Amino acid sequence: MKDLGMKRLETDRLMLREIKLDDGPEMLENWASDDKMTSYMSWSSHKNLKETRAVIHKWVEKYSRPLGFNWVIQIKETKELIGNIEVISTNASQQLCQVAFCIGSKWWNKGYTTEALKPVLKFLLNDVGFYVVEAQYLAENPAAGKVLMKAGMTKDGVMRKRYMGKNRPMELVMIRYSVTANELGKR
User: Fold this and answer.
1) Burial level of 75, CB count in 10 A (0-12/13-18/19+)?
2) Which of 3, 34, 97, 182 could disulfide-link to 90, CB 3.0 to 4.6 Å?
3) CATH superfamily ID and name for 9-185
4) Cα–Cα distance for residue pair 184/12, rounded to 1 Å
C-alpha cells in the first residue's frame, strides 16, 4: 500500500477535500448538529461550535498519520459543505479499511453521497492499494445500504446485537458491505 496522503477528489458536482479549522461553523450548521442525521451515527449531535472544533482538530491531526483519510464533501456550485467521508479504521497487514460517511439531511436523496463515495473507493483501492474497503450501517437506515450498493459495494451480511457508542447500551443490527478493486472495476 502507498501512503499518498490526502488527495483532493472531484466529481461533476462535488469537491472532496481536507477539512480546515475554519470550516467549523458550516460543519456544525449543515450536519454535525443535525439530529435526524446523527440518529444513525455512533455520536450525538453537536451542541456548540466548541464540540465541532474539537472534532476538526482530531481530523486535522489524523492527516499527519499514515493512511489518515477524511474528506469534507463540498458542492462545487454553491461551495456549501454538506458532510464527510472518513476512513475510520485500517488493517495494513490485511490491506483493508473501513469507511463511514455522513451528510446533512437537507441533502439526502440527491445522489451526493453515492457520487462522493465512488471516487473515494477508487482512490483507496486503486491508488492507495487497499485490497478491500468495508462499510457498515444501522439496519434502521436502509438508504445507507442503497448508497453503498450504488457505489459498487456488495452486501456481506448482517451483524446482530452490536453495540454502538452514544450514552446508553444498545443492541443494534448492523449491515456490512465491502468491495475489492477487481469488483469495483467490473461495475
Assistant:
1) middle
2) 97
3) Gcn5-related N-acetyltransferase (GNAT) (3.40.630.30)
4) 20
Q: C-alpha 33: how far from its chain's center?
A: 17
**139 contact partners, CB below 8 Å, separation of at least 6:** 158, 172, 173, 174, 175
Domain extents in the chain: 9-185
Q: How many CA atoms lie within 13 A of 73 on its CB side?
A: 27
3-state secondary structure of 99: strand
Q: What is the pTM of this model?
A: 0.92
CA atoms within 13 A on the CB side of 54: 6
